[in-house]
Amino acid sequence: MPKFTRPRALADTETHYCPGCTHGIIHRVIAEVIDEMGAQGETVGICPVGCSVLAYDYFNCDMIEASHGRSPAVATGVKRARPDRLVFTYQGDGDLAAIGIAEIIHAAARGENITAIFVNNTTYGMTGGQMAPTTLPGQVTQTSPYGRNTATDGFPLRICEIMAQIDGVALAERVAVIDPKSVSTAKKAVRKGFEFQKNKQGFSIIEVLSTCPTNWGLTPLKSIERLKNDMLPYYPTGVYREGAAR
Predict the structure, then answer these.
(1) How many angstroms separate the CA atoms of 15 and 221, rounded?
(2) How far apart (Å, rounded) are the C-alpha atoms in residues 100 and 48?
(3) Fewer CB in a 10 Å sphere around the end CB: N or C, the chain?
(4) What CATH code is assigned to 23-242?
């Protein structure tokens, strides 16, 4: 039987995430890739405001705290100053797709050689479950109590599809972490994004569909079902762009 141990790049500490939240799974996936690449001593992670605000407690590598939405700008500065470092951002949908949308698009347009890990749970998780740019049509949130009305609130942003149109993007891939198979696929995508960066191929973004049981008002199991039944049809997983940026 295989023996599973905690990755060296993952800190041995208690989590602040809610029960059933999949941030912990994503953290482990990233840490495993860092270990397998032997990159712990050369990795720098950038985390902004949001549920990931305490991510520096969980990764045993250099971590920098950025202002809300500004992780790509900070990552750009780090990578340009230390091009030998493996630099990643870890951002939620409220951060990346709202206040940080200009930051991520222009970092991609410049072809910055960084990797963005984008966690999409269709809500503002840390601040109480308000409507986010990725909130689904009809989804009830604290600021859309009758469901998101596209006539007044607009439509959700499909970030991977948007990023795939930008020439500076080398990789745009959407994955999920809802079962062993999807977790394995997510890990391969993160590894690919990091390898693209090591090979100086340009900007990469890995969107990870995630759950938010607390703000969805569901049990962890029901949250997985909602992701499968509601999120996947609107946000299909897959590779949207792959190859060296032009």
Answers:
(1) 19
(2) 10
(3) N
(4) 3.40.50.970
The secondary element (H helix, E strand) that includes residue 120 is strand 115-120
86 φψ region: left (φ > 0), alpha (ψ -120 to 50), beta (else): beta
What is the per-residue pLDDT across 47-85, written as a single tens digit (0 to 9) for each? Answer: 998 888 888 899 999 999 999 999 999 999 999 999 999
C-alpha angle 189-194-197 in degrees, rounded to nearest 5? 130
pTM assigned to the model: 0.95
User: Per-domain residue ranges for the chain?
Assistant: 23-242
What are the tens digits of pLDDT across the range 130-157?
899 999 999 999 889 999 999 999 999 9
- Closest by CA position to 31, among listed 65, 3, 67, 55: 55
